[in-house]
Amino acid sequence: MRIPVDIDANLLREIQQATGERMKSPAIARALKQYVTQQRKTRIIQAALTGKIDYSRTNEELEALARYDVD
Fold first, then answer.
1. Which residue among 12, 34, 39, 43 has its CA within the 20 to 30 Å range from the CA of 66?
2. 58 phi and psi, to 5 degrees?
3. Domain count across the chain
4. Is the pTM of this model over 0.70?
5. In which element (H, E) is residue 41 found?
6. Residue 31 covered by a domain
7. Is residue 62 assigned to a domain?
8. Are residues 37 and 71 in contact, defined by beta-carbon separation less than 8 angstroms?
9. Is residue 27 within 8 Å of 14, Cβ to Cβ?
C-alpha cells in the first residue's frame, strides 16, 4: 500500500543504515516489521512476568531459541 509520509532525512538515512537497505521503501518496511516484532516480544515477556500467561520454557530453551532468531 502506498501512503505519503513525512520522514526526517537524517532519520531515514539512519533507518537505511540500521536495516542495511539501500532503497527507502524497503528500509522503512523492514524497520516497521522489526519494530512490530519487538513490541510483540515485549508484550509477551511482560505478560509472562506478571503471571497473565503461563510460559514454561526454561532459560536454556529460551537461549537456544535466541540463537536462531533472525531478522
1. 12
2. -80, 165
3. 1
4. no
5. helix 24-49
6. yes
7. yes
8. yes
9. no
